[in-house]
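Exercise 3.2. Students should predict the tertiary structure of the chain below and write it as structure tokens, then compare their answer with the key that follows.

Predict this chain's 3D structure.
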Amino acid sequence: GGRGPDLGRLAAAVEAAGGGLTALGSVAPDLPHVPGALLLRVFDEHYWGADEFERRFGEKPRHGPDRLGLRIEEHVLAAPDLPSRLRSAGAGSVSLVTGRTPAELEDALDRLGWDRCDLDAAVTGDVVRKPDPACLDRVVAATGCRSAAYVGDVRDDWELVRRFRAERGGRV
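Answer key:
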């Protein structure tokens, strides 16, 4: 939106205001509106890369580079045997809450070396988005768990747990 030189200051202000699009809107209400469909299209083209985008969506990218997607640059943070090690350590169930789409989740599971059978429940961002405590409601309903350990890597993970505790009285 022409605010490139202000990016660092804007990012810090958005973070201080709580993060996410709501905070961005309050910190920089004068930014131009970008249609959501266009934003998702540009993201998908860059994330999947030219060949994979065309294979998955049936058309050539219009906004993305002619290279491999950003997804191949993601670093796997968990070992292929993590679900089985968690179960061996006494976990009654292993579930995943992610902002990814189902297609992105399947791709990530492939790269992790996990199978859908390794998970008792998976909640993707197209169903309910973090930090909405309904994410954990779905995990609890699917697994019947009465207590949980939650591991996250972004601010929305912490906010999800905080809200679940505050709004549901849950112990996570």
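Discussion points: The radius of gyration is 18 Å. The longest strand covers residues 95-97.
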